[in-house]
Amino acid sequence: PEAAGAELRRGEQSAAAAAALPPRPWHDAAALELRRLLWAARDDAELIAFAERVLGPLAAHDRQRKLVLTPTLEALLANGGQKAETARALHLNRQALYHRLTRIEQLLGVDLGDPEQLLTLHVALLARGYASGA
């Protein structure tokens, strides 16, 4: 009974994580492990503080400026760091995208060419989304 309860909780968490994804005909539950983990920890104070620490300067910028940069970062991550694909997805020319990416790097003190830093940003964005109920 205890194992069955744990499996039900994992299934519920996977479903909740999948619900936050863009619409698709199907989702592979095995591919949702990170999202399930973040969903389960969405109220954890350390996780929330991590997301704020990593993304705080970008969020502050977006609240104060007309040009909102978070969607640019989200698009870059959704496109696996591929700048040409990101520019196409955002309907921007490369120069405009590079300007935005440089500004994001300056604000966050990161190198968007570093895979580990991209992972950190991706996890922080996911965590923030789950913590805010998105």
Layout of strands and helices, then pairs:
Layout: H1 2-19, H2 33-40, H3 45-64, H4 70-78, H5 83-90, H6 94-108, H7 115-131
Helix pairs in contact: 1-2, 2-7, 3-7, 4-5, 5-6
Structure description:
By secondary structure, this protein is mainly α. The chain has 2 domains: 1-40, no CATH class; 43-134, PucR C-terminal helix-turn-helix domain (Arc Repressor Mutant, subunit A). 71% of the residues lie in helices and 0% in strands. The chain has helices spanning 2-19, 33-40, 45-64, 70-78, 83-90, 94-108, 115-131. The longest helix has 20 residues, at 45-64.
What's the short version?
It is built from seven helices and no strands. It is mainly alpha-helical and 134 residues long. It folds into two domains: 40 residues, no CATH class; 92 residues, Arc Repressor Mutant, subunit A.
Number of helices: 7
Low-confidence stretches: none
Q: What would you call the quaternary organization?
A: single chain
Could you state the order of secondary-structure elements as H and E?
HHHHHHH
In CATH terms, the superfamily of the largest domain is PucR C-terminal helix-turn-helix domain
Helix content range: over 70%
By CATH, the topology of the largest domain is: Arc Repressor Mutant, subunit A
Q: Major sheet, described briefly?
A: none
